[in-house]
Amino acid sequence: MTSPFPQSYPSTRLRRLRQSAWVRNLSSENHLTPDDLIWSMVVHDGDEPTIPVGSMPGLFRLNVDEAAKAARRASDLGIPAIAIFPHINPERKDDAGSEALNPDGLVPTVIKAMKDAAPDVGIICDVALDPFTAHGHDGVIDADGYVLNDQTVDLLRRQAVMQAEAGADIVAPSDMMDGRVGAIRDALESAGKVNTMIMSYAAKYASGFYGPYRDAIGSASALKGDKKTYQQNPANSDEALREVAMDIDEGADLVMVKPGLPYLDIIRRVSDTFAVPTIAFQVSGEYAQIKAAGERGWIDEERVMMETLLCFKRAGACGVITYFAEAAAQILNE
Ligand code: PBG
C-alpha cells in the first residue's frame, strides 16, 4: 500500500492496530469471559419442566429439576453464579408476601437442588417481596398503596436470613427501601451467617425496561401503580452515588446498577468512585429488544448480544447479570 501523502503524514495511524484479528485482540482493552456472566434464571413451582415466557423469546421458567440441571450446565460452562427469580402460583400470594418467608417455599427448595447439583456455582437470591405479594409491590403497602419502608425492611431481613440458611451465597436486596442493607447485614450476623455476601441493587431505577420480567414472574397483572416512590428517578446520577455510598457503608460487598445499557454512565461513575465490585444488570426489556429485532432480521442478534456484554466491561462493570449468560458462555467456550 503506497500513500499519496508525503512520508511524514500521518505518522500516527490508529488503523494500524485494527488491520488484523491478532493485533486487534492483542491491543484489546477489555475482554469478556464466562467469569463475567451471572445467569439470570426464572424458576417456577409447577410440574411442567419448562414454560416459555411470551415477552422474552428463548427464556423459559424452569421447574426445580430443570433448574438443578441448568446449574450443572452453568458449572460446565464456567458460569460463576446464578441469580434466581421465582414465579409462584398466584394462589400463594397475599398482601404481606408471606410466602417469601416460607422455608419450604420455591426459592429455598431451588437453592438446595442447585447446590446439590452444582456446589461450585454461586447462588444469588433477590430479596424483595414482589414475586410474593398480591399487589405486585416490593414491600407491604398502606391503605393508599404507599410502600411502607420500615415494616418492609423487617420482612426483608427475615427473607434474607431464610435464603442464607437454605444455602444462598449472596443475598441481593432489590427493593430500594432505605436502610435495608444494614438491617440485613445485622440479621445475617445475628444468625451466624457471617460469610453470606450482600449484593445490593444499589442504583436501581424506576424503569420501563422491567416490563417483560414482571410478565416472567407473574407480577405484571398484579401490579397496581408504579414503583416511583421507591426506585430511583431516571433523571438522576448524583443520587446514584449517594445510594451506593450508603449501601457500602451499611455493609454491601458488591453493588449493582440496573437497568444496564441505558445506564452505562452510572456504571462508569460508580466504578470510578468506589473500590467495590460493580455489577451491571442487563434487564428483561433489554433482552426482549435484542431478541425481537434479531427475530425480524433487523440486527444480528448474536453479535449485538456479545457487543452489549462487552460494553458493560468497558463501562467498568466486573460482571453482568444477564438472560444471555448460557448463550454467551457457549460462544465464549467455542
Ligand atoms: C424486583 C425486581 C425486578 C427485577 C429484578 N428484581 C423488577 C422490578 O423492580 O419491578 C427486574 C429484572 C428484569 O427486568 O430483568 N424486586
Automatic annotation (TrEMBL):
Keywords: Heme biosynthesis, Lyase, Magnesium, Metal-binding, Porphyrin biosynthesis. It is an enzyme of class 4 (lyase). One of its GO terms (biological process) is protoporphyrinogen IX biosynthetic process. Mg(2+) binds at E243. InterPro entries: ALAD, ALAD_AS, Aldolase_TIM. Its EC number is 4.2.1.24. Pathway: Porphyrin-containing compound metabolism; protoporphyrin-IX biosynthesis; coproporphyrinogen-III from 5-aminolevulinate: step 1/4. PROSITE patterns: D_ALA_DEHYDRATASE. The active site is at K204 (schiff-base intermediate with substrate), K258 (schiff-base intermediate with substrate). It catalyses: 2 5-aminolevulinate = porphobilinogen + 2 H2O + H(+). Pfam families: ALAD (PF00490). GO terms for cellular component: cytosol. GO terms for molecular function: porphobilinogen synthase activity; zinc ion binding. NCBIfam families: PRK09283.1 (NF006762). Belongs to the ALAD family. Homooctamer. This is Delta-aminolevulinic acid dehydratase. It comes from Henriciella algicola.
